[in-house]
Amino acid sequence: MHDASIIRLFQNRDESAISEVKAEYGSVCERAARGLLGDAHSAEEAFSDALMALWNSIPPENPRSLKAYVLGITKKCALKAYREKTAQKRGGNIRIESLDELAAYIPGGEGAESRADARALTELLNRWLGELPAEDRALFLKRYWFEESVSDIAKAAGEAPSWVSSRLFSLRKNLKSYLEKEGFSV
Length: 186
Description:
Elements: H1 3-11, H2 16-37, H3 40-57, H4 66-89, H5 97-103, H6 112-131, H7 134-144, H8 150-157, H9 161-181
Helix pairs in contact: 1-2, 2-3, 2-4, 3-4, 7-9, 8-9
């Protein structure tokens, strides 16, 4: 089923929208959540929370890309679960290296001004990604959106992990320069 059809189901408050999202995007969302949380059960719970948030947000939201929207909500739910888990365990063993790698290159903050900045930053990131060669865009997204390990990316690409790390470093520097040129400073 196409995104527009699934979104119509949500707008009509048809509960089959949930099963359509599960069938279409469940595996990719749970894989992304598992990358952050480290286990399948927690990832499944984060995806369930995301489905509830999705149900509550459409309408009024009308996302252009349902996959990106569902994945974004899932990642937020997984991050919330991660924070709760680490607050209880004081630094559990969950990996968030990919987020740490990007932290020095992308500005952050809280409040209304930061939310407006976040929207502008999202637009810039999308434009920057759109200007990248397909191979670089895929590499960047695998690491920083889908949170795949450098070794897994290297294995799939048939490259050495050092090549992947070096290429990611160059992409992060390129992103930082692009953002600075557009008026965002870290």
